[in-house]
Amino acid sequence: MEPSDRVLTTYDVLRKHGVDRRAFLRFCTQSAAALGLSAAFVPKVVEAMETKPRLPVLWLHGLECTCCSESFIRSSHPIAQDIVMNLISLDYDDTLQAAAGFQVEEIRRKVMKDYKGQYILAVEGNAPTNDGGVYCTVGGQTFLSILEETAADAKAIVAWGSCASNGCVQAAKPNPTGAKPVRKLITDKPIINVPGCPPIAEVMTGVLAYILTFDKLPELDAQGRPKMFYGQRLHDKCYRRAFFDAGQFVEAWDDEGARKGWCLYKMGCRGPTTYNSCSTFKWNCGQGWPVNSGHPCIGCAEDNFWDNGPFYQRLSNVLVPGIEATPDQIGKTLTVLSGVGLAAHLTSVAVRKQMKKDEPEEPGQPGAGEGGRV
Ligand code: SF4
Ligand code: SF4
After folding, report:
1. How far is the CA of 237 from the centre of ligand 1 (A)?
2. Which domains does the chain have, with CATH numbers?
3. Which ligand is nearest to the CA of 277?
C-alpha cells in the first residue's frame, strides 16, 4: 500500500476497483443492517465511507491456524472481498502480504511511527509465554514481544477469534506453552474481543465498519464482545427451538429425531449458553450453520470453551452465564447456574414420557420409542 493510498476513502478505492454507486449504496445499506442500525443511519454509513480516510490496520498472527483470515476474506457480500484492501488500509499482515523478511518488519515499525495512536492492531492467535515465549517467533522475535511492541502505540486492539479472545485450544489445560489471550497480556488498551472459531466474516467486517463509521468502539459485553453481534444466544433464534420447547430431542446420531430435525440439546448443543450470531447471520453466504447440518453448537464463542466439559454431553455440567428473562419456563430454567432448572425441565419431560408410556400404545405412531416425542 502506497502512503498516498492511505488518505483515500473507502469509496475512492471502491470506485478505482470498478464498484459502481448503486453497489456501493447497497453495501452501505447492508452494512448498516448488519450493525443493527435503522435505515435512518444509512446516510451516516455512506458519509463515513465517502469522507473518512480508511483505518490503518496492522494485523498480527500468533499461535493460530489462520481460520479467522480464511473467514474474513470469504465474507459473503459481493464487494466484501474488497473490504480487506479498501475499508481498511491493511499495511501489514504477515500471512496475506506478498512481501516477506526484514523489509516487511520495517514497514510495521514505520506505520507504528507515522500513525502513532491512530492505527488499529488486529490480532489473530495468542502468545505463548512459557520459556520466554520461544514457542512462537516471527523473524527471530518472539510473538509476545512483537505483540507488546505493536500494541504500545495502537488506538485499540481487535482480538480476532477465540485464540486471541480467550485462548482457545492452545490455552486449554494443561496449556504446555503458557498461551494467553491478548487481554491477559495487554492491559492498557481498549480491546474488542471477536471470538468464534472462526468468527463470522460479516461480524468481522461489521466491527471494522462500525469503528470507521462512528469513530468509536462498539458497546461491549462482560467478555469484551460487541453486543450488537454477541447480544443473543444462538438458542434464541435457532430454528429448532420449537422442538426444544416441545421436548423433542435427538437422542442418538441418525435416529428418528435426527432425521426429523429435532433439537440437539441432548447431543451436547451449547446453543443455550452461547452468545453469537450464527443462528441469524449463518455461515457460507448465509446458507447454513452447524445446527442446520445436524451438528450441535460446541460453544466456540464462549470463554474457555475447550475446558467447559466434554463436547457432545448435555449442558447440565457447563457453566450457564447470565440471567435469562424470557417468559417461557424452559428458557428460565436454563439460566440457573447449577443446572438444577434444566434438570427440572428434563424431569418434567421424563414424567410426561412416563405418562405417555402409561397410555395405550398407538401402533406405528412416529417417535413412540427412544428419540421420539417426549
Ligand atoms: S439446544 Fe441447540 S439445537 Fe436445540 S434449540 Fe437450542 S440452539 Fe437449537
Ligand atoms: S454454531 Fe457454535 S460452535 Fe459453531 S461457530 Fe457458531 S458459536 Fe461456534
Report:
1. 9
2. 3-230 (3.40.50.700), 234-358 (4.10.480.10)
3. 2
